[in-house]
Amino acid sequence: MEGLLIAETLRHLTPLLPSPRLGWRFPDPYTFVLPLRQGALWVYNKPPHAQIALKAEVPPAGGTHTGFQDLLVARAGGSLEGAEQFGLDRVLKLTFGAKGGFVTTPPVGLICELTGRNCNLILVDEAGVILGVAREVTREINRFRQLRPGLPYRPPPPYDKRDPRTLTDEALAALLAGRPLSALRKHLDGIGPELTATLARALDVPRDRPLEGAEVARAVALVRRLTLAPSRVIEELGGRPDLAELRAREAQQARLSRLRSALQKRRNLVQKRLADLQRVFEAALEADTLRAEADLLMAYAHQVPAGASEVMLMDFSGEPRGIRLEPRLSAVENAQARYERAKKRLARLEGAEAREAALHDELRTLEERLARLDELHEDELEALEARYLAEPRAPRRAAPGTRYRSPQGFEVWVGRSAKGNDELTFKLAKSRDVWLHAQGHPGSHVIIRAENREVPFETILFAAQLAAAYSKAGDSDNVPVDYTLKKHVWKPKGGPPGAVHFTQQRTVFVTPSRRPEGEGADDEA
């Protein structure tokens, strides 16, 4: 997305600020939607089409798809108070206020780098220190500018360009005269390939030919219009796909890619099965030979020496025939083995012709569908998806820990292993659930399922006794237990199972008990 288009969007956004705290929505891993008093702010972070837009549509609330989306829910939950662009660069910052609640969350900023294939989202604290990144940039990727949690945020290096909004008509004319439109983006900030193409269509001139005469005056007027309302100019000249259309197009491309892969996989399987059937046919041709040899061995068994590995016998037409034998078996046993092999080969042949015909029909259909996949109608696509993209039934998973119920009626889960702790904390627990762990001692993660209710302190003490009991400090009398909201707990990159970092915790001291006063453990564990 180009700088002038971002500036236009922020001009429309500013009157809507500060916004109420309505919560993030995440339709997919790349789309971040923040409801406003009117409509919503959409941030699309998929390379190379990253963009920001104000839309009337507000998607329904749902879950998250990535760890960075989890982080936004936890840390950027206050009201949206400001939005600023870095000059006319493709970088902007959304500022969120503090959020009260169980523990007050301090203000943060969300930096949106809408820079094509290098687009990114970076969450920073008030001091500009990175809290999280949608796509981390390590030294191996960029040795000049890393984007990782804990590092100070550094914006992309600035361009030495001029702001078209501040130039006079004379200065613009001097800059445009004698230069082709393709060179414009090197000198004017906020204008990239899309707006350059818009100028070329409006002026009806090639992008690589220098402007001259009346073209310069027309170009100045058009650049002036672009600085005020670039979207309107683009729409007048044929339009551009809006965010919804772009997302729909990319979703359809991803859908076709998944289906193409499934069809190719099935085609390979069908080809393999046809090759297997061909081997069945070839093997069946040898069944008559096996039975003829078995008949000879049965007829002349008395002529076959014991322990022989090969024998020469006269067949029933009077011709000599050599037969290889298994020395450990008698002549009769060698004959019986041949009869059995012939029987199995013929048994495999039964129905093979019908299977081969069906497989050839399916192969022809698959080849035809693959060749026309981009042209198929919706009903044809749905039929293929139903046949080849059926979701496998997931096996029933074991519970991640032991479930208790507090006297106040809250579910309390206790992890049973390092892997179970991970599953409990990062798959079962929700952002507003309470997380507990014995301070300074290895032990189980404990989760209180809040289910949108305020968790009373009595339940926290109940769960803290369990956390203390299921730790290495379980034999002590007075154990410190840390607790915080699950949204303040995260897994260190590359950390072993069960390892976590957490913040904004409080501490209680309790006596360990695996049966705190209450209803105790459920049968389901």
From TrEMBL:
<dbReference type="InterPro" id="IPR008532">
    <property type="entry name" value="NFACT_RNA-bd"/>
</dbReference>
<dbReference type="Pfam" id="PF05833">
    <property type="entry name" value="NFACT_N"/>
</dbReference>
<dbReference type="GO" id="GO:0000049">
    <property type="term" value="F:tRNA binding"/>
</dbReference>
<protein>
    <recommendedName>
        <fullName>NFACT RNA-binding domain-containing protein</fullName>
    </recommendedName>
</protein>
<keyword id="KW-0175">Coiled coil</keyword>
<dbReference type="GO" id="GO:0043023">
    <property type="term" value="F:ribosomal large subunit binding"/>
</dbReference>
<dbReference type="GO" id="GO:0072344">
    <property type="term" value="P:rescue of stalled ribosome"/>
</dbReference>
<dbReference type="InterPro" id="IPR051608">
    <property type="entry name" value="RQC_Subunit_NEMF"/>
</dbReference>
<dbReference type="Pfam" id="PF05670">
    <property type="entry name" value="NFACT-R_1"/>
</dbReference>
<feature type="domain" description="NFACT RNA-binding">
    <location>
        <begin position="404"/>
        <end position="494"/>
    </location>
</feature>
<dbReference type="GO" id="GO:1990112">
    <property type="term" value="C:RQC complex"/>
</dbReference>
<feature type="coiled-coil region">
    <location>
        <begin position="332"/>
        <end position="387"/>
    </location>
</feature>
